[in-house]
Amino acid sequence: MPRYKSWEQIRREMNLNEEQVAAFGLLDEAERRFYEARHRRGFSDAMLAAALGVPEDEAWAVDAEEELFLAALARHVAAAGGHLELRAVFDDEAVVLLSEPQPSDRS
């Protein structure tokens, strides 16, 4: 069984700056919103694991580099004058999981 690292361990090992820490916070909020949306639909952790074809304790294993990629993509989109929005779209609802606010001042 894999041993998952604490947030403190990950932050220390990856030497994250404050911008990266903030990005992880946004992604954590996106994960919470998805959790709520799938539970409204009656989709359990066990069902998620089965759909992914992994043991239940591995269903939420996400590589920190994958999360940092999304944070980097958000920075690139912002640099080009836009903002990133991540939505989960189902037959009967769409849930905004992540919406980076657009800066009001681009100086």
Key terms:
single chain; 107 residues; mainly alpha; two-stranded antiparallel ribbon; 2 strands; 51% helix
Summarize the structure.
With 107 residues, the chain is mainly α.
Structure description:
The chain has 107 residues and is mainly alpha-helical. The protein has one domain. It has 4 helices and 2 strands, in the order H-H-H-H-E-E. The protein has a two-stranded antiparallel ribbon with strand order 1-2. Strand 1 and strand 2 (94-99) form a beta hairpin. Helix 2 crosses helix 4. It is flat.
Fraction of residues in β-strands: 5-15%
Number of helices: 4
**Count of domains:** 1
* Residue-averaged pLDDT: 79
Question: Which assembly state applies to the chains in this document?
Answer: single chain
Helix content: 40-55%
Strands, helices and their partners?
Elements lengths: L6 H8 L3 H23 L4 H8 L11 H16 L5 E5 L4 E6 L8
Antiparallel strand pairs: 1-2
Helix pairs in contact: 2-4
